[in-house]
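Can't paste images in this forum, so I'm doing it all in text. The chain is below; anyone willing to post the predicted structure tokens underneath?
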Amino acid sequence: MTTIRRLDYGYFVRPAEETGTGSARVEPCLGYLVEHRGAVLLFDTGMAAHPDVDAHYRPRRRDVRAALGRPLEDVTLVVNCHLHFDHCGGNQVLRNASVIVQRSELATARTTADYTLPELLDGVTYDELDGQAELLPGLLVLPTPGHTDGHQSLVVRGSDGVVVVAGQSHDTATAYGADVLAARARRDAHGEPLPVPPAWVDTLLALDPARVVFAHDASVWVP
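Text version of the structure:
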């Protein structure tokens, strides 16, 4: 049996200059616990602490221990959608788990100033991927670049259909839905001008997902 459980890592306040709306916005920080074929996988591990981060985003954290509600030792795999501070903050305490990451994402995090909190990258066992990979039958990592070049999502195939854990491929389910409609209009040869969705949106749609879930939006996209 395959189960997916959303985890609450708290929230932060995105400043007005980053929202494009002229107003600040409170955003959740969400992870997902996946149990599949005997494996216990955690998608994203919450927010790290740093004085500059705290001053800018004013986070209210719930750490991975509290969010998980079970022994940390149970987790055998971690998938980070990318390595910004609010997605990999708990990696170091998950000592029994390998962290699945795109090779390009890890290289960028290690070499680019102000990309992440560099101390978060130490003391972690990485399994570096170059593109798509099947972790287990029915459990697929798929590159979904955009927010970062090395962003990745998780595809989970269970008895009730395909669930895509899309991380921060989009900030909201509404934004993802807009790209799905743009892809549909292009397939219909609706005529220009049309928005151009990421190429991988068609790849996800070909999997016929029953649900798509996100890191910073509690809403769920359904077809």
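The two ends are 23 Å apart (CA to CA). The chain has a mean pLDDT of 97.
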